[in-house]
Amino acid sequence: MKKKIYLLFIPALLIQCLSLRNGEKPDSDLIEIAKWSVNEGKLGTATILQQEQAKNTIKNIEETWIKIKTILPEKYMAQYVKELEIFTDGADGTLAGVKPTDESNESWSYGIDPADLPEGDWQNKEDFLHTLLHEFGHILTLNNTQVEPSELDFQEDEARYLTNEGLAKIDSYVNQFVQQFWYQDDLLFEWDKIQKTRNLDKKLDQLYDFYKNHKTKFYTDYAAESPEEDIAESWYYFVLLDKPEGRLIKNQKLLFFYKFPELVLLRTEIRSAIR
């Protein structure tokens, strides 16, 4: 059984190399403090893992959870998020992350670091808002309606993209996204070669060079880390930015989401919640 790891959003690509496909994401620096079961969007039973740290970090958990739910789409959060976890790696590190709770991808854990929670109105905190929406993008594009379990270690054909969470369904958002944008100009092939680099520092350098060589295709350097991160980053900018014009590939990625009426509705819902 594959280990379930957090899909973490870290503002700078060079902080660490996050490889979803081969499970290299180094989330071992995160200290798990406590977790709550979630049922239909409501917090349930708490499990305290670190008693001393929990004293100072879980006082306002209900308020924190309400703020998260105020921003993110209620229907999706109620359907997929079955666990809230509090972890930390100290201030100015990992803000939040999500991961499936089992192999089915039907239920997800949403993790946050209280050391990085902003004060006041979150709607005006761009970095944290970016994180919340980016992580929700993973749930949106990697849940069980989009990806099915697979024991494959390597992608066997080009028809279906292999994620760490499983094999993308033909008509899934992520598979269509990869087919349209990552097979173009052999981008996926070039990225795959980088994943074979064992030395972490060299891999980081190669990933950043990959981004620099394809700047017009990505909104951020972090998006160039993998197709999963690219679609999550593109999702964020789809929600926050006005409909783009022009022929740049990164703008075409935002226009991609407009093909799906349900995603346009989610965009409207989120924008109403943050403005």
Integer average pLDDT: 86
Structural class: alpha+beta
Count of separate structural domains: 2
* Strand elements, count: 9
Give the overall shape.
Answer: globular
Which percent bin holds the helix content? 40-55%
Order of helices and strands: EEEHHHEEEHEEEHHHHHH
Provide the low-confidence segments as ranges: 10-26
The percentage of residues in β strands lies in 15-25%
Distance between the termini: 43 Å
User: What kind of sheet is the major sheet?
Assistant: 6 strands, mixed
> If you compute it from the alpha carbons, what radius of gyration comes out, rounded to the nearest whole angstrom?
18 Å
Spatial ordering of strands, largest sheet:
1-5-6-4-2-3
Number of helices: 10
Fold and architecture overview:
This protein is α+β, with helices and mostly antiparallel strands and 275 residues long. The chain has two domains: 136 residues, no CATH class; 111 residues, no CATH class. Helices cover 40% and strands 16% of the residues. Helix 4 packs across helix 8 and helix 6 runs antiparallel to helix 7. About 6% of the residues have low confidence.
